[in-house]
Amino acid sequence: MLTIGKLAQAGDISPDALRYYEREGLLAPASRTERGYRLYGEDAVRRIRFIQHAQACGFVLAEIRELLHLRQADSACCADVRQRAIEKKLQLAAKIRAMQAMSAALDRLIADCPDGTRSVDDCPILAALEHVDGDPMRPP
User: Fold this and answer.
1) Is 47 exposed, middle or buried, given 0-12, 13-18 or 19+ CB atoms closer than 10 A?
2) What CATH topology corresponds to 1-76?
3) What is the Cα–Cα distance from 139 to 4, expressed in whole angstroms?
4) pLDDT tens profile 23-57
5) Neighbours of 4 (CB within 10 A)
């Protein structure tokens, strides 16, 4: 059995994060000592690593909770997990496209202010951001 400190060390995570995972229903201590200290089994280390790997793939805690529930559901199959992965991939692709559009808009704004020597009152970037008609990313 591992204390919360030992589990935190093994999972390279803070004890506060472990307590948060517990509140979020992602982790539960196997037992408690007479004094109320949490004790975790060896499977907790594997679960922490699962959570960390899922987060690295872009899954948020609510989605990770769903994946953990699928793992324990008798009626679930790999296709259910695969579908979640496909949905996450599509969400990430949409975010990437949105960020690329933001980057392109910033490129245009920066190009409209090539030397940055104008006064703030005459700044084309600020003027474009204030523009309300048409494309707000194009200077008036």
Assistant:
1) buried
2) Multidrug-efflux Transporter Regulator; Chain: A; Domain 2 (1.10.1660)
3) 55
4) 999 999 999 989 988 999 989 999 999 999 999 99
5) 19
